[in-house]
Amino acid sequence: MLAKLTLALCVLGALAAAPAAAGDGPMFVTQGGIGVVSGTTRYIPVNNGVSDVTELLAISTKDGTELNQTPLLGSWGLPSTPAGAQGLSLDGKRLVLADTSAGQLSPSRFMVVNPKTMRITKRITLKGYFSFDAMSPDGSKLYFIQYVKSGPNTLDLEHYVVRGYDLKANLLVPGRIADRTQKSWVMQGSPVTRTTSADGQWVYTLYTNPAGYPFIHALDTVHGIAHCVGLPMTNQNGIYNIVLGLHGNALSVHWRSGRPFVNVDTGTWRVSPAHRGGFPWWTLAFVAVVPLGLLGRRRRRAGKLNKELAEILREEAPEPDLVA
């Protein structure tokens, strides 16, 4: 047991120090790194030093001991998205791995593993170049990005569509997953950041768009529908400093510093400017115990504080160019 613990800790230490990348394999797939976590177990695919063999490790997050392992023939890694390594269903019953073979552009190969038994339950082969995008909460539906202008020996990452995959029927769903209200919308650009609803149903991804305005792709992973929401930015130079956050029905688009930019109503998909400093939610705690007069004074003080904070944040970084 001591040897096993030492080995697992060494592996974790080495992986933590190394970049989470697949080496010479294609983009959007990682080997090593911190893996993905379900409950108290971390799953990490690593190259075990033997040619064309990947070791899938199950490691305890409590003490670093190796709980299980299984060898996989070939070079496999975890799908990587702007949110980091992905591929584990919300219920922890399915783990998707992607082929990392160098120069393997078509076909695209994936496998589904049962994390509990560490056994392969499904193999997926798709003609063309695909990358994993998302999964429904129960793991019955997968979503892939298909790069439509990629050829046998060429890779165009700027033009793509979202495709659904029925894992029960083991087939790619015909047609693309697109915003039906904007049929002329063409997806192109690069993913920047993303956030997911707590129940795993909605996945929101921010994309750059060199041909127009950046946009948020909102994917309903349960029903297989999508919405595209353009952001009013004419200058995308600082877009990699933007972060998405979900607060009830409001999707906040803000800078990493915390400075607000815009909000998106996920019920109507309307974009509105975010108020600098935000609403002083802490004042609600005083409603039941503070007289209304005192509450009014506190709100005025909070408003003044918010204005001062806004001035500080305004000086911290330049505002993006907004569309009038």
- Per DSSP E runs of 2 or more residues, the count of β-strands stands at 22
Estimate the strand proportion: 35-45%
Radius of gyration: 23 Å
Q: Structural class, judged by helices and strands? A: mainly beta
- Mean of residue pLDDT? 77
Terminus-to-terminus distance: 65 Å
Low-confidence parts, pLDDT < 50 over ≥5 residues? 1-26, 278-324
Proportion of residues in helical segments = 10-25%
Structural notes for this entry:
With 324 residues, the chain is mainly beta. It has a domain of 133 residues. It is built from 2 helices and 22 strands. Strands 1, 6, 7, 8, 9 and 10 form a 6-stranded antiparallel β-sheet that branches. Strands 2-3-4-5 form a 4-stranded antiparallel β-sheet, covered by helices on one side. The relative contact order is 0.08.
Write a concise keyword list for the protein shown above.
mainly beta, four-stranded antiparallel beta sheet, 13% helix, globular
